[in-house]
Amino acid sequence: MEGIGKGLKKLGIHVGMMLGILMILLFLFFNIYLPNYTNHGETVTVPDLEGIHYSELTGFLSSRDLRYEITLDSGFVADAKPLSVLKQNPKPGAKVKHDRKIYVTLNAENPPLIKMPSLVNTPLKNAQEILANYGLVRGEIIYVPDIGMNVVLEQKYRGRDIREGFEIPKGSQIDLVVGDGYGNQSLDMPNLIGMDDIEAEFLIVGSGLRLGRINYVKTDTVPKGTVIRQLPPDGVVAKTGELVDIWVSILDDSINF
């Protein structure tokens, strides 16, 4: 019995020593090795990379102890520089560990081709929404006499009519020929000579015409602001929506040319 007691005592001592060593090892692992290995408590704030050209990313991120990888996906924004960053993951402001890899999506170097939608006979407001949805830019709006007010009559690309389905670069500018709502009705051109410029403008618009260019002429014989000439002249047959240019008198010393 005495021998068994001594044996158990030695066994208990050995077990206690092993447990002590294990506790020491666990303490060293969790409090010294692991924090040093994972940079515990040390983080980097992810910067905003949007708009930065990919050639500048290496230097920009390495100075902040970060790396990057370009994703296979790409996008296209007409206003952004080619090969500049459009999106990133993680987002700006995120806290990450040192040497973390930032995934970036670049703007395509060349715009993708898209098929031109049909805008003819579409209200102008809807046509603008369609262009935006297709990634196209609304260019000049050209009003012509037509009873369809603000209805698209023609769609043009680089000055030429463009048909539905024709492939053009995304971000292209599309000009729209739009009806002014007046149609092709004929009327006699009113006489504007002798009116003041404000009165003449009201008469032009009220007659279904449009005010064109206002030209100022220096004179000391006609009251300031008086219409002294018009084009087309009064009495000729005009179409609704036609432009009317007027010449307005100003005092000889009232403007410097």
Automatic annotation (TrEMBL):
It is an enzyme of class 2 (transferase). The keyword Transmembrane helix applies. Keywords: Kinase, Membrane, Transferase, Transmembrane, Transmembrane helix. Gene3D superfamilies: 3.30.10.20. Residues 41-108, 110-180, 183-250 form the PASTA domain. GO terms for molecular function: protein serine/threonine kinase activity. The chain crosses the membrane at residues 12-34. Its EC number is 2.7.11.1. InterPro entries: PASTA_dom. This is Putative serine/threonine-protein kinase Sps1.
